[in-house]
Amino acid sequence: MELKELSKGKNKLTFLAKGINHAYANSLRRLMLSNVPTMAIEEVEFRTNSSILYDEIVAHRMGLLPLKTDLKSFDEKSEVKFTLKAKGAGYVYAGDLKSNDAKCKPVYPKTPILKLIDKQDVELEATAKLGIGKEHMKWSPGTVYYVQEPKIKINNKHAEFEKMKDKYPPKAFKKGLLDEQSILDNNLVDACAGINDNILLVEYSDENFIFTVESWGQMEPKEIVETAVEIFNVQLNEFSKLIKAK
Fold it and tell me: Is 0.85 topped by the overall pTM?
């Protein structure tokens, strides 16, 4: 398998995986979603909660807060404690949580947890643990999807081009002509396919796949990919040993 980075943003990575098949591509996608471990709040102990929200609702909201995760520092036995003490009136945000580990804190501190009115208060202690998405979605590091690499053939000189050009999305053109890079950059492959194969023909590779990984912020998209590949290699090696043992 060969990996090639296509684009990279703050929490988004697009890359091309060459030399694999559909089964491998889907297994890699599922591993990134369900097997890459992250930290998330698992237990909440309330000392006081006079807000309008039940304890269970507050705990559920806290469990879904993305927490910074450093896999080099955390393992299955790791626990991070958070404390919260607030009085109304006003909003209580994720950033109001106090962590005993600077490496694990809410990714988005402005996320509201609850709202207190005058004389209402909340005090609690929460415990974050390492987990994986197949146990609960709160541990999933992001969203992942892939498409087969498209191969686009364009004939702007075809006799029917002028008659058919209005059928294609405006952003598929550059200087009045259909442009492959514009189509790819604007994710218009499916919108252009099948209109007229003599003008624009799209064929899909069975061994090259374009992945898009969007992190919720717990870790870098690149780290999600690398961790999933490592997990996959371990699983394949274990499977290989089981086969040989028989």
Answer: yes
